[in-house]
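Apologies for my clumsy wording, but are you able to produce some protein sequence, whichever is easiest, and the tokens describing how it folds?
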Amino acid sequence: MRIKILCLFFCLSYIVFVNQKANAQVAGLGIFDAQTDVGIVKHKGSALYDAKLQQYQLEGSGTNIWATSDAFHFVWKRMKGDFILRTNAAFTGKGVEAHRKVGLMIRTSLDSNSKHVNAVVHGDGLTSLQYRKTVGGITEEQKSSLTSAGVIQLERKGNTYIMSVARKGDLFVNEEVSNLDLGDEVYVGIFICSHNADVSEKATFNNVRIVVPAPATLVPYKQYLGSSIELLDLETQNSRVIYQSPKSLQAPNWMGDGKTLIYNSEGSLYKFNLKTNEPVVLNTGSAKNNNNDHVLSFDGKMLAISSGDGGPSLGYTVLANGGEAKQITPIGPSYMHGWSPDGKFIVFCGERNKEFDVYRIPSNGGPEERLTTTPGLDDGPEYTPDGKYIYFNSVRSGLMQVWRMKADGSEQTQITNDDYNNWFPHISPDGKWIEYITFLKNEVAPGDHPFYKHVFIRVMPVDGGPSKVVAYLYGGQGTINTPSWSPDSKHIAFVSNSQLLFPAFPISK
């Protein structure tokens, strides 16, 4: 009997050990389920995940991913339906073979001859969309006009697969293949192949995301996807997810202490502690149903908010740490966007006589003054730190673009002029940069900024000049409606969206 009990004890202990090891492996791979060498490889591959940086280091060998069979190292997750994969990938060191490969992969199985599609960057810079349509079939390729891509995205829409690639800082260039049936449930992930059976290569993957987009049946402004608050390091252009919620979180606004964000969700404002990653409801008194147009005064003491409890949105002010709100705008809709540096005025977007224009109003209340009069939507006004200018976005030239005017409304000048829709210019605290969000014109009408679209966050010099992309994401409404610069101008907070699948990131209770 004693022997049976001991055997049972050791068996149970072994099961617990195996389960703990399996759980540790899953936790150690971040958003992925497992890793494996696909096909015959001479040197076993590996993947290390840095949870603090949310970064992957891959090492692998393998003869090739080509022709009728493959050999490479693969870090994967099982997925169904439509999704978007994205990463910034870069080789470590010079390497041996010109055609070593890194990228994103979608496979029907882990067999070496599986049907698949991959978005790949080679060691010599060749960037292409490669796919095998049948089991054991010949791999086909569509070469991108872009070489040496640093940002790689691969999206599935039914049986259509879209590769979007860019050099870091640039906009995407696309390739796609349709009628590629890989089955509903597939293996998706990141990979490395040395293209030489005798050597191993290494690569680093940052900004790794798997996004589950909004279904076609989603009812806008009544149904919502989950939200992630991310912090972007402008020097490296790497971002970290610091908080997730199945609810709609919107418009993170960085407080002056550098330790706290303010965001809105389901009609309430929240203070979010960046050290503890815990949100606390901010008291706004009688101002209920707050939306995502809220902005801190330059001295950090006051908050202008927009609230429409059963009626059009009105402008209020409230202490930054909470209290009873004071109504400022007499009528609505009014959406508050910017304080003057001396705290005497607030600029906002107001609809009056079926026209949306930029207005300013004394922060203690008083008559409002119309600053823009051109037909069409003018929105998102914000003062520069020196108080000389107000930046805003306007549809007056056809597409939505960034504009600037003097603080009295004179000398209205267009700042951006491209083939995209650009919204919500925010000036960095050091006065040197503008960040803004860009929508694709084939997805969004010029006067709209909806949820759940492919968008870019871009920055440009405050006086104009070339813009560069600093974040590629799925978001839109609520991503950066408010000023989201850190006080030192080195980081940006923003919201991205997806159906939430991944416990690897902090998730709200």
